[in-house]
Amino acid sequence: KNEVEQSPQNLTAQEGEFITINCSYSVGISALHWLQQHPGGGIVSLFMLSSGKKKHGRLIATINIQEKHSSLHITASHPRDSAVYICAVSSSSGSARQLTFGSGTQLTVLP
Amino acid sequence: EAGVTQFPSHSVIEKGQTVTLRCDPISGHDNLYWYRRVMGKEIKFLLHFVKESKQDESGMPNNRFLAERTGGTYSTLKVQPAELEDSGVYFCASSPGVAPGGTQYFGPGTRLTVL
Known about the structure:
Chain A is built from no helices and 11 strands. By secondary structure, chain A is mainly beta. In chain A, strands 2, 4, 5, 9, 10 and 11 form a 6-stranded mixed β-sheet that branches. A 5-stranded antiparallel β-sheet of chain A has the order 1-3-8-7-6, with no helix packed on it. The N and C termini of chain A lie far apart (36 Å). The model of chain A has no long low-confidence stretch (mean pLDDT 92). Chain B has 115 residues and is an all-beta fold. Chain B is 0% helix and 48% strand. In chain B, the strands form 2 sheets. In chain B, strands 2, 4, 5, 6, 9, 10 and 11 form a 7-stranded mixed β-sheet that branches. The radius of gyration of chain B is 13 Å and the shape is globular. The relative contact order of chain B is 0.33. The interface between A and B is medium-sized, with 29 and 26 residues.
């Protein structure tokens, strides 16, 4: 079992819909990251959070440390939001700085 | 400011050949990471440099993989000899600072296909 689990694996939505992607982790973390990867493109960091909630435009990320759970929300989704969304965590143990990744959620937003 | 760059973007080689991937991190970033995504799997950590020193290479799959970061600037990842299971996308990332958990900036990746 992976230390970082994402759901759903695939998600298709109509333009304008509210979207939620979930991430659960089983290790102690110093931070949780949400990343975005467009087809054929590199990986872009969307959020890094260790508590509470962050908002950037139509994207909102929340984290519940006690429940070891995070969600990424997209409001008023648009076809350009179609991408793979990846949850990753930085361990809190020792000096570990590498990221442990979830398997990603393929989001397709239809016009 | 230039982002993380990787070269080549694609490489197709035959089993048994050698391939060298290059990563140029963002200038001034002491931390450099190599990650790999094989088909259908999640991205996995390979190793972490702090400047020119290997901080953690626990993710390197075997001794066919050799990473270097001479002078603490760009890094190379050599696979010799390549095997079929080495196919995948190799990502490099860099980050500044010393605190764990900081934002990492990713390169576009190198897609390696071993035939």
